[in-house]
Amino acid sequence: MLQALANQARDVKRGLRCSIAFLAAVALALCAALACWAKDPPAAGKVPALPQPLTEESIRELVARLSDDEVLKLVLDQLDRAAATSANAKPRMGMSGMVDEHAGAMRTTLDGLEAAYYALPDTLRQIRAKLTEPEGTERLAVALLVGILVAGFFVEGLYRLALRRFRTALDQTPAATYSAQVFKHGVGLLIDLGAILVWTIAATGAFFLLWHDQELRRTAMLDIVIGVILVRTTMRVASFLLSPSDPSTRLLPFADAPARILWWFAVILASNFAVDILLHTLFRGSGANQATLNLVAMPPLVLGIGVAIGTIWAVRTPIANLIRGKGTHGTIRHWTGELWPIVGTLYFLGILFARIFDILAGERELSRQGIFSVLLIVAMPVVDMALCHALAAGAGDEVAEGRAARVRGLLYAYESVFRRAIHIVVVAVGLALFARVWGIDLFAIAQQGMGGNFASALLGVSIVLLLAYMLWEGAKTAIDRRLAAEGDLDPEAPASRLRTVLPLMRALIAITVFVMATLSVLAALGVDILPLIAGASVVGVAIGFGSQTLVRDIVSGAFFLMDDAFRLGEYLEIGDAKGRVEKINVRTLFLRHHRGAINILPYGEIKRIRNTNRDWMVMVMDFPLTYDTNLAQVKKILKQVGDEIAADPELKPDLLQPLKLAGIQSTEDSAIVVRAKFTARPEGEPYMIRKAAYTKILKAFREAGIKFAHKQVTVNVPALSHTNDEAMAAAAGAAALAAASATESKD
Predict the structure, then answer these.
(1) Any residues with CB less than 8 A from the CB of 241 and at least 6 apart, and which?
(2) pLDDT for 154-183, tens place per residue?
(3) Contact 608/599 with Cβ under 8 angstroms?
(4) Is the pTM value of this prediction over 0.70?
(5) Which comes out higher in pLDDT, residue 331 or 10?
(6) At what angle do helices 530-546 and 497-524 cross, to 10 degrees?
(7) Are 568 and 489 in contact (CB under 8 A)?
């Protein structure tokens, strides 16, 4: 228990140091102002300021402490203001009149701030008088405040003592992965927030138990309790994310120095806000007017803006590196990382000038839009970074088994899609909250600029577009991953069925998502889409009747793909067209001939397909041998060659059945045709196997003396007698003499 109390004391000490620092800054500012007042007192004829709120009690109190001359001056001043207001109530035309009217209001506000500045010593004395009345009870109030704080810390110590063993076991539990680390520290954060909740309940119970009658002191004590809760909660949440003292438990990717700077920025901002609430309560409770409240609100505002700007420039480099990311980055991310400090500085200066303008314009109360917008701007990148980091860690954790492995694989596969979805959702929600903080009605703006129907359906249209984008990105990522798993497409080898069908499916999904999103957006805008659907149906029927060939081509192609009749890279023979499948679209097939020509075939014209690259193919080799060939020796040679090819490590993977003798194919006049065959994979190298087989077989036949039969023609002439020979010779001689005589007569 003592250790738990010591830890709480250390945490409270760190938080109170911030609050004390701000209180000291405010005290120094007030001392400087008092010194200025001492050197430059207000003029004697200065009109006293009216108290705010203006009640009967505050009026009587003011009149009681003023002299008769001061009361007269106050009455005359109020009458002059009423007359000026009546004169200014006349309508003024043009921009100059509007500017003059605002300028007059700002001059009046500046006069009130000046009067409040010079009346601030009196206001401080009134605050002290309010806090010390009735006399002698201020020490009791301090004792009550200490008692409330001590009661809260005592009950919180009991809470921590009860959970000491569990917290010790939690701190000693190793967390190897980022997800386990987030879970571990998240449970610790819940325990610490529970401790703060217990402190709040105990302190609030003690506050109501030790009720104090003096209203201002009671409200101030309650504001102090709220400030302690705010500062401690901020410290714990900032420690959960940044862990300035222990880099091993830091969830956000920052180095030690930026983490400490951001942690102190969060704590100082919370302390500044708590001090602002306390000062506002004290001054309002003492009866200060609106000008005094505006004057007191300026130092915390300026101080908070200054701390924010200083923090921006202190951590500009690490945050710029986070914006740019790792590796290569685009131009937009580069310049966003370079310019974000300037943009942030201009944003905070804009908040400062807007608040000052509100004061000068006569706003009754300063809104908390500035602080809430700052918290929102800080929270958006933190939430986005935390979610993306958790997503990356979940996708990159060590391999699990079963369902965890499937979830991890899903996150890893679609990490880029989920990351873009996180960016879109965080930005959309952040812009919506930002507009709500500043009172900007996006629906009203959309209604003026885009029409009432679109403005009323803006949320539905946004959801439809987001879902369509996510559906398309998910389908595209899944198809691209599957295509990448298929490997690079070899132009010489046929593609798989998935590589053939998936590109067509991707185009079909894109068209379907676009059409469905368009119809859904039109339906959300109030457009009746039934006529569109009916018209599309009628047009489809008309196109079907008027373009039967087109419909036949598309339907035939769909069935060819369903039947897996061909794939990219396969060699087809379709009628007199042959070639390798180069491209497939909705209605035509592109075949590249081995000589370079391309054949474009509509699916509807295809009657029969001969696919030479499917499953397996038988390679046949015929050898014409002489009739005296020893067929047993031929069979032995072919078997030996088949064994050599089957043992070749380069040819074996594509060989399904070894080379063997298929017998005598046919007999011719001068030869017997012996056939050999083997079975190979068509997508491999069957022709290389055939080439190697021919080389080995020819060599083996030559060594064994086996000869190939050559084609020859034998002409048998019957034997003639001697008499016939003499007759033929005489006839030939007579013919020769006749030919010679004919030649001479021509000459």
Answers:
(1) 250, 251, 252, 382, 386
(2) 999 999 999 988 888 888 888 777 777 778
(3) no
(4) no
(5) 331
(6) 140
(7) yes
